[in-house]
């Protein structure tokens, strides 16, 4: 039986970095979970246990901390770019590197109304993410993103006129609750964009579009959120969404002699509508 | 072999309620997970499968939605009080009722700077919780609380002069990161307190104390947070904390010829210091 | 405002221990998560940041590994007993110690039908747990237990003749699916029982009772499982259960011209019936 | 600003199906979580809220239960094949369908040594998975798989002779613990293979290879596991692995005057080596 190793990659995942930068009395806090994946000339490790070209995943982990120490950066995208470019530059056996970072959202605690110099409180369930790809001799490609940005609107959301057949039991509705947990990823047109400004602008655009749109469906609003994001951040080429429909089911009050008036619902995690799109500039 | 059923209780857990209240164009959104536990004259169900006195947990679930429909409330505490008092009042076989509610924190999306009428974004990892106990013929006891309120401070936290023996390897430090995920529960002195004001006041007091305290240890700061909470809310009798110490471990930069300057850490979930206290008015 | 510190405790949680014991070529593998909680003369740490009597939680963590190295044990209960007794014996400021251990269930991989000497595969979602309490000058109390032992039976389970009122919508059923995730804790009558034999006997007794019982309700079967466990292990004094009712909801096939024949269900995690009992020898 | 919708898909995820098949007194239990994703002529829903061609995700959910009722199947692969083929066949607007199923592993409870007719206990953390793709006018492609199959071996695992540079701190070792949680996916060469036999054969082959291999690294053993799987199941064309390296870190006993003898470790979840390969027949 002849077999072959068609593809392989390896790296270290969930490397947990805290970096504190002190600017006078003001401290800046960044907490990242970092994943690094490499491809290259590593097949001998699989085929015969010859590890001589393999950079140990422990060494990859060390690299995260050393590069965090030696470099200045203010966004996860900047750090991911320098991490990703490090590997093919440092190791001739590395062909491509992919670095993913997920950042927890900390905001300053307010004391007597003022933001505190060195104390922080979690700023939401949402996570800021980015993914950077490099290939030897190629361009560095930067994606920004957000995960678990939970939103809900209690009206201005319809779902009607969809396909009717044997499998349909849901009735048309002009007024339902629309809740989702936004996962979005967008591609920057260069690797030194103003990531902080863009991320904030895209976040605001998505939230405002979600709130203001008169929705005829998750798909409909998703497209509008994409349009708004592309308008808000000229530096991005495209945006990809995955919006699970976190259903709120009307509770059947009939057996109790009561009337449902868009007021009493069961919130659910599953099953969920699972809707995706990729939207780009023409 | 003679055996006896010494204690028993039952109920329904994780009943997921969404309630929307429309005040003109302004919508108010509450999303709760509700647990109900009952004790009373239910032993025959265990001993012989005689269920005649048992209120089905499905009926308990229905009760959550029906009472949510029929009653006005603006806080989970108010809803938990009326839920808890319902059961011994409605069923002679019920002796005690305990109702726990965990509320997700939604805040209004801002559109052009203004809070939106009906669109919301998740307001943090933290959850607002409450527990209400009633016993037939007794007083209703209300606890408020908060869970998973994640905070971190990057200085003004020491840990030193602790017990030294064979098992100690940790060195004294005058400057470490102090991170925790606050779980706190407090007892109200009556069942109709201004829960919303109290919860906000206690939250602010805890956060400000955490930020401002020059900490000699988790225990030390916990006591100060308790003092601040009791001062901020005269309506509470006591407060109980559980503060896991979410350690940030200095990364050893020595092998790389670099110096740790309170800047590069590994954030960890486990193992964690696990520290509790119960603080009350004298 | 006068306040007091009424109670306090502290320790280290989720200390993750792997111990390998080599008996010739045969390796024995134990993987535990260990929690230690201490009470005693520690109030000065809270009241004024005086840590001189405090054994650092880092030292507690070290103690877990050092005692694991220095002692022979074959069950988590044995290790928890020696851990718990260590603290008041070693430190005059410790009054009580509580040690909880959760053990993952590994079983040997079979190679050509034979159990392998040193390779293991996870033996189920279930976890073996124990909790040991000691107080200075008192007896050591040992609880064994199991968590997340998931079971389901597809017939011989009824739910009927329960309380009928306005809040009831569920119909009587003579044949439903009964699924649960068993959490059970039992108390040994001494601290040097044959824990391994007892745990196995109780597990078998619970599973056989669950399978064989003609159930009139979760409560009914729970009591039978308790009876069987107490009969199987004379060394235990009592047993406490928490059995969430992991409902399988009949799927409504009527709209599709099909008939439900106890065959097509929706499995759910929430809401769940939540049923507990404490059963002891008379 | 001109934008375009380059790609889109939608469906329903985590549809939770329980099916009981009664063969005389013997019951067969299947519990699946089903995801369905469709592509096709759905862009108008995004671009303008025109939902007329959209099969509601609620209808997709209904389809899962109706097809489960109307069809006989004994493996998730068979059910996924008929589900996937249903959509393009039933709806002219559907171009492709992807159906993923994850199956919990139930095994019969033994009573007095015999497998019980209708009572089951969870058979491990591992999940059996499959993914089926269809495209209008194309072949149906079936992948089988396993997730979270946790294994550990306590010896016959080395890690040495890897790349040495500034970022390396890990020493060579001839004897370490090797633990992982196997995720594997394999592609069948036809859509009516004997999935049950193949899955069992691949599972056994992977476990035996893991146990018996004298490992020079995760990569090395992964390739051997792939070779064994391909040898055991002629019906599969290729196999893809992702093996996180669930590190067990030697605990440093030096400060306590004790010696590490491959006996006392810290088990960890993160960071983890994250190693993948795609292996196929030549």
What does the secondary structure layout of this molecule look like, with pairings?
The structure is a homotetramer of 282-residue chains.
Chain A: E1 3-23, E2 26-40, H1 43-48, H2 57-70, H3 76-90, E3 94-111, E4 114-135, E5 141-153, E6 178-188, H4 195-212, H5 218-232, E7 236-245, E8 248-250, E9 264-267, E10 272-281
Antiparallel strand pairs in A: 1-2, 2-3, 3-4, 4-5, 5-6, 6-7, 7-10, 8-9
Helix pairs in contact in A: 4-5
Report on the architecture of this protein.
Four copies of one chain form a homotetramer. With 282 residues, the first copy, chain A, is an alpha+beta fold. Chain A has five helices and ten strands, in the order E-E-H-H-H-E-E-E-E-H-H-E-E-E-E. Chain A has an eight-stranded antiparallel beta sheet with strand order 1-2-3-4-5-6-7-10. Chain A has a two-stranded antiparallel sheet with strand order 8-9. In chain A, helix 4 packs antiparallel against helix 5 (218-232). The longest helix of chain A has 18 residues, at 195-212. The radius of gyration of chain A is 23 Å and the shape is globular. The model of chain A has no long low-confidence stretch (mean pLDDT 97). Chains A and D meet through strand 1, helix 1, helix 2, helix 5 and strand 7 of A and strand 1, helix 1, helix 2, helix 5 and strand 7 of D. Strand 1 of chain A pairs antiparallel with strand 9 (264-267) of chain B.
């Amino acid at each position: 039986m002849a077999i072959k190793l068609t593809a392989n990659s390896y790296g270290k995942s969930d490397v947990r970095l805290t970096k504190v930068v002190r600017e006078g009395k003001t401290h800046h806090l960044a907490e990242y979970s970092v994943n690094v994946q490499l491809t290259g000339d590593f097949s001998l490790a699989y085929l015969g246990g010859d590890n001589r070209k393999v950079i140990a995943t422990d060494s990859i982990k060390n690299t995260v901390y050393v590069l965090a120490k030696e470099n200045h950066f203010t966004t996860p995208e900047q750090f991911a770019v320098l991490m990703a470019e490090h590997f093919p530059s440092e190791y001739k056996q590395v062909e491509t590197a992919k670095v993913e970072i997920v950042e927890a959202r900390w905001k300053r605690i307010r004391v007597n109304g003022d933001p505190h110099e060195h104390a922080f409180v979690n700023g939401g369930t949402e996570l800021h993410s980015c993914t950077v790809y490099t290939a030897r001799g190629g361009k560095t490609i930067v994606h920004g993103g957000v995960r678990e940005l939970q939103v809900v609107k209690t009206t201005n959301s319809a779902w009607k006129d969809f396909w009717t057949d044997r499998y349909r039991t849901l009735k048309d509705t002009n007024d339902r609750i629309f809740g989702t947990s936004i996962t979005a990823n967008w591609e920057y047109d260069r690797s030194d964009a103003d990531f902080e400004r863009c991320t904030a602008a895209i976040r605001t655009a998505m939230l405002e579009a979600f709130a203001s749109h008169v929705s005829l469906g998750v798909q409909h609003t998703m497209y509008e959120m994409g349009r708004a994001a592309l308008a808000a951040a000229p530096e991005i080429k495209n945006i990809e969404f995955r919006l699970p429909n976190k259903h709120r089911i009307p509770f059947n009050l009939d057996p109790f002699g009561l009337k449902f008036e868009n007021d009493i619902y069961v919130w659910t995690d599953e099953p969920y509508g699972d809707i995706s799109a990729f939207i780009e500039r023409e």
